[in-house]
Amino acid sequence: MAKEQQKSRVNDFVLKIANVNGTGSASANSLLMKTVFRMGVPVSGKNFFPSNIQGLPTWYEIRVSKDGYLARSGSVDVMVAMNAQTYGRDLAEVAPGGVLIYDSTWPRDRQLARPDIEIIGVPLARMCNERFSSARTRILMKNMAYVGVLAALLALDRDVIVALVKETFARKQALIDSNLEALELGFTYAREHLQCPLPLHVKALDKTSGHIMIDGNTAAALGCVYAGATVGAWYPITPSTSLMDAFKSFCERYRKDPDTGERRYCVVQAEDELAAIGIVLGATWNGARAFTPTSGPGLSLMSEFLGFAYFTELPAVVFDVQRVGPSTGMPTRTQQADLIAAAYASHGDTKHVLLFPADPRECFEHAVAAFDLADRLQTPVIVMSDLDIGMNDWMCRELEWDASYRPDRGKVLSAEELEAAKAFHRYVDVDGDGIPQRTLPGVHPRGAYFVRGSGHNQYGGYTEDAAEYTQVVDRLAKKWQTAAELVPEPVIRRGRKESALGVVAIGSSHAAVEEALDRLAAKGVHADYCRIRAFPFGKKVRQFLEQHDQVFVVEQNRDAQLRTLLQAELGYPATRLRSILSYGGLPIDQRCVAEALEQHAARGVAA
Amino acid sequence: MTSIAKPQIVHQGLKRNALGLTIRDYEGGMSTLCAGCGHDSITAAIVQAFFELDIEPHTVAKMSGIGCSSKTPAYFLSASHGFNSVHGRMPSIATGANAANRKLHLLGVSGDGDSLSIGLGQFMHALRRNLDMVYIIENNGVYGLTKGQFSASADVGSKAKRGEVNKQPPIDPVQMALALGGSFVARSFSGDKEQLVPLIKAGVRHRGFALIDVISPCVTFNDHEDSTKSYAYTREFNHRAIHADFVPPAAEIKAAYDEGDVLSVELHDGSRVLLKKVAKNYDAGNRGAALEYVRARQRAGEIVTGLLYLDESSPDLHAVNGTVSAPLSELPYEELCPGRDALLALQKRFR
Predict the structure, then answer these.
(1) In the prediction, which pLDDT does B280 show?
(2) Rounded mean pLDDT, B7-18
(3) Distances (CA, A) of A604 to A525, A573, A592, A599
(4) Among A46, A97, A77, A214, which residue's Cα sits nearest to residue A154?
């Protein structure tokens, strides 16, 4: 790599750490990422971890990007190879001109050579073994030792690292001491033995102010708290578990009566997801805002009740933090492969409102929106997050809160309204928007009605009559049209020129698409981009598709589920929709999108 | 859930309760079950119990799953809120309802298919949570709506209408409830209203999960000779171990009981349950002994009935959770949202 090129890599490279899970590397890695963030340089971190507690390979990929690109870049510039088991593939993954750092306590496999990269050995284990006495400490401190090495090689701000160590281990002085010691070990070694910093390093900027680093599950949980949710039900499942953990911890902070210590919330750990969704429905039937976080297998189990809720018209908020399917699949890897399962969950004619947050900030916002929509529309709303958004820390703009916000509880009749009314009929379309009125148990004698999943007429009575049944399900279809007007609109980015080329994506694919479009634009190829944020799709999505001869649909599943939904729901011809798919379980990288679009553009030029 | 509306005729002479309501106000639609179905007698007992308890109908939520028994909420308390859920999942609906609104009176009606097969997990977990509700199993040992298959509560050796003999051991909700820590475990017989009505009343006032397993013969598919859930068999082998009388708060205990034969248990609202021994050697305060007794009588082909175990001190879902006393659904939004400043302060953690 020429010197000029290397210089341009300041604040623009990918660092990957290969390790063994259960060795405490997670805190060292997030500390590295946060250091870059606090130095004012945009950064993202992706954790690739096994479905296991201890002993299997794990990787952490940190992208430093002065331009603020937060998707995976598709290549690795600096590899810290701490796991002998994966050394071969880790070595192979380094881009030409890159750097590999390994633990030289043990001889590395010299059969595996790479003359085109720089290989740096640091005796990390030996240094830690000499300095620390307990076996566990030696293992843990090896991680802080490589942080020290990287601090020297990448010119990281040591004061920032020291401050982070102190914050991380706030109440444990002994841990602070040993971590700082290990940090110093690595740092000093690198300074004495290696040329520091590398041409590729970090230099302080001011591009992260007004931003936070937060994971989507935490942000979504915060959204539930701010939306006023009081009942949560769940069954533990990766990668959604941390959402309920976060909700409980926020509630312990904000929802306990200061005098009595009594809780203004109730979380039920259910026996399974069949019960979790039932608990949510029992609670919303009674007027509480209630939710359940889950993932693919849980969503499958919830299907029967989701159809019930659609038909009986009860609100529910479900977070589907998607992981790799089918079946158990790969629980700790990411995908967007529950789209069709969620959109049409359950038997019979059912359709569900879906929201597609693209980052943790939107997880927060969509959580709040989900409760409002569920209440307004009296139907389940499923927030389609995924493992990448849910469990990784993302840099995003600070969360904001409009103090004038009040929940939209929809058409719930109060005791006064019931008192004044002549009669109440549960499923009559009083306003012509397909949304009926509802009542809550215990409020007023006139509000009593029977919730039944069996055929019912517009008065809520049992029916097996064709006309009465048809009237109800046709009104539900009308309500679906109303939903299309109420859900969040797509975010549309226009290319600089009139473009016949369109790109459509959802959720966590967004960052990769944005970057790919910038790269393409730099080469003179312009495309318009529509980031869909909800299902049903709505007018603007339809217009976008109609305006473009050729539309690429970017998604993270094998079967092009989003494309299928677009075809099925909007009647858009399959020939005009092309797929860019990424479904191996790692978050989509920008290269995958850019290359597909470039190939298309090249063909267009040739034609 | 079919039902036929009853004509609204109120006779002047009808007795009124403390709310000024008559028993008609606690009835529901006309039953569409088979004539003579045990479930209809349970429906009548529910109507009477709620009438006598002076409970406002709209503060009651009657819930069920799927099956003949689960149709019955249409036949009582028509002024109450109803919830006919999916098969075997009523306990989760009840859990959510209670989580959101702890003031509501929850009455679940289920069957042996709904609770002991498809919904066994949910039934047991609601019991484990000691959910504050009355849970009635209308137990007839057979699937009625699908025409006569054995259910999980069928006894070994019991013969189906079509002739086959059940060889698998039954799941007994009473024994399971005793083993799993149930706080109110009762069994009754649909033909014994005198026993059933006070059980339902005590169950409503009990804070926690009140299980009442009611043997309720299916006249169409399981009332023949060689069935152990027929009217004839249940009448013959009903072993009334203990009788529960329900005494509302501040009411006097009028009947005279022999010292040592009656145990008075005070419930949370100040009402009392008088447990009167019918079988001399039965101890309703001893879980292990109760379980052993029920088992021994079962081996002899008998059905032990009565309020078989009562523990008023078990914490319910909200006691365990430490929830505020007001229903969560009634808390004003201002008490739930931490506000803008809190969000700003919190985010320092994420920098």
Answers:
(1) 85
(2) 82
(3) 10, 20, 19, 9
(4) A77
pLDDT tens, residue by residue, A118-127: 999 999 999 9
CB contact under 8 A, B81 and A441: yes
- Give the C-alpha separation, B209 to B206, whole Å: 8
Token code pair at residue A499: 């473009």
Decide if domain A3-193 falls under CATH 3.40.920.10: yes
E strand intervals along A387-444: 393-397
Phi, psi of B192 (to 5 degrees): -125, 75
Q: Which CATH superfamily is domain B23-350 in?
A: Thiamin diphosphate (ThDP)-binding fold, Pyr/PP domains (3.40.50.970)
Tell me whether residue A107 is exposed, middle or buried, using C-beta atoms within 10 angstroms of its C-beta: 0 to 12, 13 to 18, 19 or more.
Answer: exposed
Residue type, A523: K
Per-residue DSSP letter, A412:
B
Least reliable range by pLDDT among A229-233, B158-162, B344-348: B158-162
User: What element of type H or E holds B292?
Assistant: helix B287-299
What would be the CATH architecture of the domain defined by A491-606?
Answer: 3-Layer(aba) Sandwich (3.40)
Answer yes or no: do B336 and A230 touch at CB < 8 A. Answer: yes
Interchain CB contact of B83 with A (< 8 Å): yes
Pair of tokens at residue B64: 């069920």
A-chain CB neighbours of B329 within 8 Å are 230, 283, 286-288, 440
Number of inter-chain CB pairs under 8 A, A vs B:
228
Contact A282 B324 (CB under 8 A): no
Task: State the average pLDDT for chain B.
Answer: 94
For residue A162, give the H/E element and its range.
Answer: helix A158-168
B58 in contact with A, Cβ within 8 Å? yes
Which residues have a Cβ under 8 Å from the Cβ of A453 and sit 6 or more positions away?
A307, A308, A311, A312, B84, B85, B86
Supply B66's token pair: 């799927």
Give the chain A residue nearest B339 (alpha carbons): A403
Please report which helix (H) or strand (E) contains residue A451, including its range.
Answer: strand A450-452
Residues from chain B contacting residue A290 (CB–CB below 8 Å) = 96, 99-100
- Give the whole-number percent of chain A exceeding pLDDT 90: 90
Q: What is the pLDDT of residues B184-209, one digit of tens each?
A: 999 999 999 999 999 999 999 999 99
Residues of chain A with CATH 3.40.50.920: 491-606
Q: CATH 3.40.50.970 occupies which residues in chain A?
A: 214-397
Contacts with B84 from chain A: Cβ below 8 Å: 450-454
CB contacts of A38 in chain B (<8 Å) are 351
Question: Where is A329: in which H helix or E strand?
Answer: none
What rounded mean pLDDT belongs to chain A? 95
Instruction: Using DSSP bridges, classify how beta strands A266-269 and A211-215 pair: parallel, antiparallel or unpaired.
Output: unpaired
Q: Tell if the CB–CB gap between B339 and A401 is shorter than 8 Å.
A: yes
| pLDDT over 70 (residue B260) | no
Q: State the Rg of chain A over Cα.
A: 27
CA dist A119 and A79 (Å) reads 10
Confidence of residue A1 (pLDDT cuts 50, 70, 90): very low
Determine if the peptide bond prior to B315 is cis (ω within 30°): no
> Rounded to the nearest 10 degrees, what angle do helices B90-100 and A273-285 cross at?
50
Please write the tens of the pLDDT for every residue from A100-112.
Answer: 999 999 887 777 7
Q: Which are the contacts of A269, defined by CB distance < 8 A and separation ≥ 6?
A: A233, A234, A235, A236
Choose from A215, A235, A266 for mutation: most chain B CBs within 10 A.
Answer: A266
Homologous superfamily, domain A214-397: Thiamin diphosphate (ThDP)-binding fold, Pyr/PP domains (3.40.50.970)
Sorted by where each begins, the domain ranges of chain B are 23-350
- pLDDT computed for residue B3 by the predictor: 61
